[in-house]
Amino acid sequence: MIKNAINPLDGRYFEKTRALASYFSEEALMKYRIVMECKYLIALSQNKILRKFTSKEIKIITNLYEKFDETFYKEIKKIEVITNHDVKAVEYFIKEKLSKTSLKDSVEWVHFAVTSEDTNNIAYAFILSDSLENVLIPSISEIISELNILANKYKNLPMLARTHGQSASPTTFGKEMNVFRSRLEKQLKNLQKIKIEAKLNGATGNYNAHLVAYPNINWLEFSKKFIEDFNKNRKQKFAVNLNTTQIECHDSYIEIFDALRRINSILLDFNQDMWRYISDNWVTQKPKAGEIGSSTMPHKINPIDFENSEGNLGLANALFEFFARKLPVSRLQRDLSDSTVERTLGTAFGHSYLAYISLLKGLSKIKVNENKIREDLNAHPEVIAEAIQTILRREEVKFPYEKLKNLTRGKQVALEDIHKFIKTLDVSNKIKTELLAITPENYLGLASKLASK
Fold it and tell me: What are phi and psi of 50, to 5 degrees?
C-alpha cells in the first residue's frame, strides 16, 4: 500500500488491484513502448531496409524488454527529466544500450521515420489486449461460471417474482441466476470479438518520412504485416488502421470500453438484486470469524462485497463514458489532450477489476435460504390469479380477469379463499380440479428448463 496515495486503487485497494500493475503502471507503459520500438527495429532488418541482424544481435534487442526491470525504468525516467518527452527518453535509452554492442552502427534506425504516437498507440494496444486477456476476461468468466453453478443448483427452487416491487408470477432462483449468466456471456463474446486497431504511419498518417527515404518499399503492406504479426498466440487481436491523422482514432478502444460498460451495468444490476435477496433473507451470508459488520450493532453481516462492487462499477462506467466522449475527438491532425486521458485507462480497468473480485468474494460467502424463499412464495397465493384467469379465458368464461381482480387486487388472500372462489365457478368439475391443482410452487412455466439453457 502507498500510504500517501490519493487514488484508492493505490491506497486501500493496493493489494487487490496489483494484477493490473503489470499493464497500466508507468513502468509497464515504458516497457510496452520498448517492445514496440525493438520489434520495429527488428522488422526493419528483416525487411532488408537495414542490414540483417544476427540471432545474437536480435537477442540483445529483445533482452531490452524481456529483462526490463525497475533499473531500466529509472534510467529512462532520468533521461526524461532532460528531454521532457517520455517517448524520446525511451528512444535514447535504447540507443544508449545498443551503442555498447555490435549494433552501434544501427542506433539511428531506432524510431526511424515514426512519431511518438506510432510508439504509443501500439503500446496501448498491447496494454489493452494483455490486460483483457490475462486479468479482466478471466474474472468475468469466473463470475459467469459461478452464476452457472447457482443456476443449475437452484433451477427447481420456486421463488416469488416481483415486478414493480409487487408479487408476480413465480420463477425459480436458478432461472434468475441464468438470466444474468446469459446476458454476461453474450456481452463477453462481443468483447472478445473486438479487434484493437493500431497504426504505424508517421507524423500525419501519410508515411511521409518512410516514403521519402525508401520510395520502393510497400509501406502499407509493411505496417499491416508488422501490426498483424502481434496476433500470434494472442486472443484479443490487433488490426491495422491505415487511415489516420497523427493519432490512431481510438474508435476500437471505445468499442472495448462500451462492451465493458455493458458488462458492468449487468453486474451492477445483479449486485442490486443480490442486495435485495439478502435484505429479504432469501440469501444469507456466512459469518467469518473476526469480521465486524457494524461498529455498534453486533448482529450485522452487511452485504458489503456486493455494495463495494456496485460502487466500483459505477465509477468505472463513469470513466468509460468519458473516454467514449473524449478519446475519438482530436483537433485537426492531433492535439495532446488524449495523452493524459489514456494514462487513466488503468483507473477504469482497476475499478472494474475490483468490482469483479468483490462480487466473487460476495458470492463465496452466500447461502440460499430455501425455506424462507418457499415460505414467502406461499404467503402470496394471489400470484396464481393469472393462471386461473388464463384457463378461464381458454374455457370462454365471461370476464375472468375482472373476477380475479375483484377477488385479489389490493387484498391479502389465502389459498383457501382462492379455492372457495374456484368451487363457485360455473365450469365442469374437471376444470375445477385443474384449477385447484395450481399452487404458487408449481406455477413455474418453463423456469426450470430456462435455468439450464
Answer: -135, 180
